[in-house]
Amino acid sequence: MAGKSTIRYLMLSLLLTFLLVLQAREKKDNNNASLTYFIQKEKSFGADTIALREFLTPLRQRALKGDVVKQKAVYYALMGRGTSRKIGQINTISTAYYEKASDLATQFEDEALGLWVQIELANYYYRFNLLEQSLPYFMTASFKIDDIPYDDQINPDESYRSLGFFFCTIGEYKDAIHCLKEAAFLAPDSSEMKTSILDNLALCHLHEKDTTVALAYLNDAKAMALQIDAKARLARVNGMLAMVSLGQGELDSALHYVDQDVMLSEESGDKTNQQYAEFIKAKVLMAKGDMHAAELLLDELGEELKSNPSKTDFLIEVEQLRLKIAEHKRDSEMELAIRRNLGMLKDSSIYGEDAQVIQRARVLAAKERYLNEASITNLKVQQGRFARNMYIVVLVLGIGILIISYIDFRRKMFARHHRYEKKVLAYRLEKTLLDQKLEQAHKTLADHLRFLTDKNRQIESLQREIVRINKSTLAEIEEKNGKLKQLLQSHILKEDGWQNFKMTFDEAYPNYYNQLKKGIPELTENNIRFIMLQKLGLTAAETANVLGISLEAIKKNKQRLKQKLGDKYEEVMEII
């Protein structure tokens, strides 16, 4: 009897728990639906932040039957979004709104809310091309989003789409495709959002050289854009189809698609897309051999772009295409004028810097993204089994223990790998920034000397870190991956680095290199490099680091040089 009473008690407790969970789920779904309504309507207010604030008032005044802190976090994030759209750049007002939203999300300890706020912050910087600032927020969100059920998330379709767009921008196309597929699954059918997701999926597959799949997505996007009469989106799809046809050498099809792109862009009032479509059309005309028509189109496009300083990079691309036409025509006067104009445009713009920022962000993202998809899938399967068998108490307890043990094991493994990857990433970023600093400097000898000094500091720091890691629990990871040792080797000056250094050295000390070669012909190239570094005042240890050899090897080099030169050794030392 006692046994039956115990079982009955357990069953009633389980039933009560299930009902409470069901009630909480229904409440959360209703609250999320209300928040989604405000989030989607926010876009319609444009730059009118006063009307937006009035519209969002219920989120601040407890007018909804939901969590007040959560509603306030959404309110501040949407106000941040609206004010940034009105001001048109990063600003202190929007930043303050976003910080309040972030603080509230942290205080509320809701993973779904925290995820949404992270993506809103990321989009804030991404909209203004500040990829480096947006990267930490996108990466944090990417680690969390697959672990949070769709039903718990706030606007999951837009969240996945934002992540997909970001990864596509920085060149992580496999991650972008994963996120965009999730977004396509969640997005409403026959909607502008789903059309944009499909054509971006096509773009990612084109970058992955998977033209067949890309064309399938483009055709789906085109059909959907026609169905909902989204002319601007249809124009972009036709533009992409034109580029595919051009790449495949189907010039008549390319011309047809690009003409559709121009016409639809003009009808929808999308001047920017129209200009880019005309640029593609000029490429098609050039491929067809109609240089005159292409030249007229580019001349007209160039005149339009001259009045807009923000499109200087695009104007440079137009001028480069015009240069090809001039070279084809063998018009030296036209070619000279275009080259002069290109020089002035590049001097007056930040041309090329965006590519460097994207490249740096791509490196950071690649190093951060190391989650094992197989492990995540396995965890989801286990969680699914737990949910399906939750009515059987013994099985629930057994699965619960297994999951807790697994998570604890994975957490420990993840923490070790995370610490290691953070160290590698920090040293690689420091090296990247140092290389970029030299690239962007005037490249004087003083710049090179500072570069070599900073490089030596990094090498010594990296050597100490390798010693520390080899004595820690991370030794096995470093032994297996060897990333820090590879990074240490990458600090050694390669041949191209030596050539750049030599050019700068010759500017500071004209004919020094040639005089050494002619005056002491027995000197090898390695001897001269050693002498040049000594002339800059580098210590033996610093010289060893730059050359990638040991301190003992430096001493031997000095001895061999002395033996080789004999009496001339003192002459060389006096020159230094």
TrEMBL record:
Its main location: cytoplasm. TPR repeats lie at residues 157-190. Gene3D superfamilies: Tetratricopeptide repeat domain. The chain crosses the membrane at residues 390-409. The keyword Cytoplasm applies. InterPro entries: Bac_ResReg_Asp_Phosphatase (IPR051476), TPR-like_helical_dom_sf (IPR011990), TPR_rpt (IPR019734). This is Tetratricopeptide repeat protein. It comes from Sphingobacterium hotanense.
